[in-house]
């Protein structure tokens, strides 16, 4: 992992998402929240994963359905 990819703790991630730490815990236990990293028993979130998760939750006001963002062709290439 590069040094430019900071890991956020649950408090920081919750603040960024505008939700409570308890909401993040519920997301994890229900397996419906943003991806996270376990370091031992510590839960951490990558900023990039949070941004992607937020983008994936976007809803179109016209249809009320989630909008699928086009994927970038460079996504998934290279080592992390």
Topology:
Layout: E1 7-8, H1 10-17, H2 21-29, E2 37-39, E3 42-46, H3 47-56
Antiparallel strand pairs: 1-3, 2-3
Helix pairs in contact: 1-2
Helix-strand topology string = EHHEEH
Which residues sit in consecutive blocks of at least 5 with pLDDT less than 50? 74-80
SSE class: alpha+beta
Count of alpha and pi helical runs? 3
Helix content: 25-40%
Rg for CA atoms: 14 Å
Task: Look at the structure and give the mean pLDDT.
Answer: 83
User: Sheet with the most strands?
Assistant: 3 strands, antiparallel
State which percent range the strand residues make up.
Answer: 5-15%
Query: How many E strands?
Result: 3
Distance between the ends: 5 Å
Cα shape: globular
Strand order, main sheet: write it out: 1-3-2
Structure description:
The protein has about 80 residues and is α+β, with helices and mostly antiparallel strands. It has a domain at about 5-55. About 35% of the residues lie in helices and about 10% in strands. It contains three helices and three strands. It has a three-stranded antiparallel sheet with strand order 1-3-2. Helix 1 (about 10-15) crosses helix 2 (about 20-30). The longest helix has 10 residues, at about 45-55. Mean pLDDT is about 85; it is low at about 75-80.
Comma- or semicolon-separated keywords:
3-stranded antiparallel sheet, 80 residues, alpha+beta
Characterize this entry briefly.
This protein has a domain at 7-56.
């Amino acid at each position: 992992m590069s040094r430019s990819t900071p890991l956020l703790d649950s408090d920081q991630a919750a603040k960024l998402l505008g939700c409570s730490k308890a909401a993040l815990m519920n997301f994890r236990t229900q397996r419906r929240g943003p991806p996270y990293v376990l370091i031992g028993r510590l839960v951490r979130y990558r900023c990039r994963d949070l941004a992607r998760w937020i983008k994936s939750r976007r809803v179109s006001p016209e249809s009320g359905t989630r909008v699928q963002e086009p994927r970038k062709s460079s996504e998934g290439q290279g080592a992390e």
